[in-house]
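Is this the right way to post structure tokens for a design question? Let me know if I should format differently. Anyway, here goes:
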């Protein structure tokens, strides 16, 4: 998945309970008009940040992974959300992003947004984890 990526970024936060796949998508991206349901591959999510397509999901007892893909001007970007069972009953939520420019326009576009990319993903992950701990089931 990350081969040939022009930029890879990763973020990690700890939470006290495991979010469902629906909670991951709804809580992190806040798709417009969607609830916390299962999102099979191919599902299109319209968000304030743009249109994302669910590329694949993996759900096991110790791990949940959802990979989303979106296209911007001259680039393709992937967002991977992974929840991993850590020792001691805590869960790590990891947000991985990768950018694949497809033209010179994509390289220029990403250079313009690059300084804001990492802080925005960090803020989204922090807000999601905060909401998850506040709205515990």
């Amino acid at each position: 998945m990350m081969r040939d990526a022009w930029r890879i970024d990763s973020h990690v936060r700890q939470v006290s309970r495991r979010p469902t796949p629906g909670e991951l998508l709804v809580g992190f991206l806040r798709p417009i008009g969607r609830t916390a349901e299962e999102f099979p591959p191919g599902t299109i999510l319209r968000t304030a940040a743009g249109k994302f397509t669910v590329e694949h999901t993996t759900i096991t007892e110790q791990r949940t992974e959802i990979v989303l893909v979106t296209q911007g001007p001259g680039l393709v970007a992937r967002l991977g959300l992974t929840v991993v069972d850590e020792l001691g009953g805590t869960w790590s939520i990891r947000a991985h992003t990768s950018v694949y420019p497809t033209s010179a326009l994509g390289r220029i576009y990403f250079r313009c947004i690059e300084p804001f990319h990492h802080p925005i993903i960090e803020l989204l992950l922090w807000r999601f984890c905060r909401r998850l701990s506040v709205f515990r089931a």
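Format looks fine. Someone answered above. Worth noting: The first helix runs from residue 21 to 29. The chain has a mean pLDDT of 78.
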